[in-house]
Design a protein that fits this description.
The protein is built from 4 helices and no strands. By secondary structure, the protein is an all-alpha fold. The chain has one domain.
């Protein structure tokens, strides 16, 4: 349910930001005082909207990443305990390493998303020479990759790591 909420929030950001950037792309030409006021207001609006949405994403990302990191640490501690007792934990070790790499990739995708959004916002506000539409599209792609990685993390934990723990449990029972 929480993943669905995250996905809906991601889509909301994409739609809202796309509308703002599409509007900014339509306004080209020489700048006059009236246009400067309009651009200043547009910059404030974009900054406010992006700030609200990214704050929510940051909170949710932190919550989920902490949960994934805690599960990694707990399973790793358990695996080390069983390894010290002489059980075969090679498969679990391999999968835990893969899980940790997935966690790092997820964080990297999110950080690239935030960088793209920030660059896009700077482009709209005139603080940068970057193409705000291109930066926004790049950020959106990174957000989709982040979303895919989050789903893969959850699936990997529920299917692969859980099965490895069940296999370890079967060894203990023998």
């Amino acid at each position: 349910m929480k993943i669905r909420t995250l996905l809906l929030s991601i889509m909301f950001l994409a739609v809202c930001s796309l509308a703002v950037f599409a509007q900014s792309a339509q306004q080209n030409g020489p700048t006059t005082n009236g246009q400067q006021g309009s651009e200043s207001q547009k910059c404030l609006d974009v900054t406010k909207k992006v700030g609200l949405v990214t704050n929510r994403y940051d909170q949710r990302k932190e919550k989920y990443m902490n949960a994934f990191q805690n599960s990694y640490q707990n399973i790793n501690t358990l695996m080390l305990k069983f390894k010290a007792e002489g059980y075969d934990t090679a498969q679990l070790e391999e999968h835990l390493e893969e899980y940790n790499n997935m966690i790092q990739n997820t964080s990297r995708y999110y950080n690239e998303f935030r960088t793209g959004i920030d660059n896009s916002k700077k482009g709209v506000c005139g603080n940068s020479n970057v193409d705000s539409g291109k930066e926004f599209n790049t950020a959106r792609e990174q957000l989709m990759e982040f979303k895919k990685e989050m789903l893969q993390l959850r699936t990997f934990a529920l299917e692969t790591l859980k099965q490895d723990l069940l296999d370890l449990k079967a060894q203990v029972s023998e």
